[in-house]
Amino acid sequence: MAQGGGMLESSDYSLVGEQPVIRSIVLGVIALVTMNATQAAPVVWAINDGAFEDGGTFSGSFTYDADTDIYSDISINVSAWFIAPPAYVFTADSPLNSDASELFLYGGVDYVFERYLGLYFETDLTNQGGTVAIYLPVSREEFVDYGDGQPSAGERYIVSGSVTAVPIPAAAWLFGSALAGLGWLRPMGSC
């Protein structure tokens, strides 16, 4: 209590342990922002039940970042055709003319078979994940065979398939929750 007239000075109202409370709040906010940034990270998509009209199959995965509209880490295995090209693995970090609604890959590295794979999606891919069906009427693989000097071409349409976001491991969520908890449950007396 202040002397002289019963007036209280500002020092009489100071909060005990004010700095640890502020530090805990700041750490909690940082942890929450970090968790939200993790959720908006590029998503790894896995191909499910991919099949062609000739009985061939395709499988694999790719990463897509909807914020930057960039595909990366592409690895899609395509089975052999009954008419010509052998099995093949499409890999690329810069696919042709691709965006959230389509993934178009070129695979003409051996100069005998020139191959293309076009996956079109029923809805745009996002960073939120989920399952997205492959749009069947137009999705296909095409090839041109230059092996005998007379180019021949063919295509096979996709008859089933979807892509599903690969879930973030539980350990990542646990780590983010632990960081948030440290910010809020820290003892008030410690710095």
The averaged pLDDT comes out at 77
Instruction: Give the helix/strand class.
Output: alpha+beta
Give the proportion of residues in helices.
Answer: 10-25%
Beta-strand content bin: 35-45%
Total beta strands: 10
- What count of domains describes the coordinates? 2
Radius of gyration of CA atoms, rounded to a whole number: 28 Å
Sequence stretches where pLDDT stays below 50 over 5 or more residues: none
- Could you state the oligomeric state of the chains shown? single chain
Could you spell the SSE succession in H and E letters?
HEEEEEEEEEEH
Separate helix tally: 2
Distance between the termini: 29 Å
- Please give the largest β-sheet: 10 strands, antiparallel
Shape: elongated
What does this structure look like?
The protein has helices at 18-39, 170-185; strands at 43-52, 57-65, 70-78, 88-92, 96-99, 102-106, 113-120, 131-133, 140-145, 152-165. It is of the alpha+beta class. The chain folds into two domains: 17-40 and 169-184; 43-165. Strands 1, 2, 3, 4, 5, 6, 7, 8, 9 and 10 form a ten-stranded antiparallel β-sheet that branches. Strand 2 (57-65) and strand 3 (70-78) form a beta hairpin. Helix 1 (18-39) packs antiparallel against helix 2 (170-185). The longest helix is centred in the first third of the chain and has 22 residues, at 18-39. The radius of gyration is 28 Å and the shape is elongated. The two termini are 29 Å apart.
